[in-house]
Backbone:
């Protein structure tokens, strides 16, 4: 333990920016040895003191170096951003464009009536035997459903909240309600 402390003090002294004199090193070693001696105890039986005692001392010839952080590189700002694209304003979108989106062909999935899909008559173009579709209310109550052959029609009322299509092929809009 003593040797480790002596080595640490010597390392710290040599790491400083100015080299200490030989006498300063010898003084630091002597002070360290004097401070880290075991104190015997006066007991009837011999005892061992596992930890040495420490008395603080002051080093008067210690010079602490200063450090200056120098960046390894300087970032260069380049203007590589694309010009911003304009977000379409849905209030200015024509009614024909909105209807075209609502009436576009639909595949498997859930669609909100009046938001994702237009109410009205829709026809399935699929040929599967396990086609399933349903319309439900806001609370999830079933309005109507079908399980069977694809290729039929479905009437989606304006009062429906959601439509679900599964394995029926593509659904094509036929007419409004």
Residues:
């Amino acid at each position: 333990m003593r040797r480790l402390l002596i080595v640490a003090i010597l390392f710290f002294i040599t790491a400083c920016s100015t080299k200490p004199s030989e006498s300063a090193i010898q003084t630091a070693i002597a002070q360290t040895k004097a401070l880290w001696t075991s104190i015997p105890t006066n007991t009837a039986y011999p005892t061992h003191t596992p930890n040495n005692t420490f008395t603080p001392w002051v080093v008067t010839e210690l010079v602490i170096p200063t450090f200056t952080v120098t960046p390894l590189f300087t970032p260069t700002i380049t203007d590589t951003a694309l010009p911003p694209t304009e977000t379409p304003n849905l209030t200015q979108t024509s009614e024909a464009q909105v209807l075209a989106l609502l009436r576009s062909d639909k595949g498997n999935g859930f669609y909100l009536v009046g938001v994702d899909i237009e109410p009205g008559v829709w026809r399935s173009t699929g040929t599967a035997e396990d086609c399933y579709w349903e319309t439900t209310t806001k609370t999830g109550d079933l309005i109507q459903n079908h399980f069977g052959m694809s290729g039929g029609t479905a009437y989606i009322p304006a009062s429906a909240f959601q439509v679900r299509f599964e394995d029926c092929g593509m659904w094509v809009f036929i007419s409004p309600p």
Notes: DSSP finds three helices and seven strands in the chain.
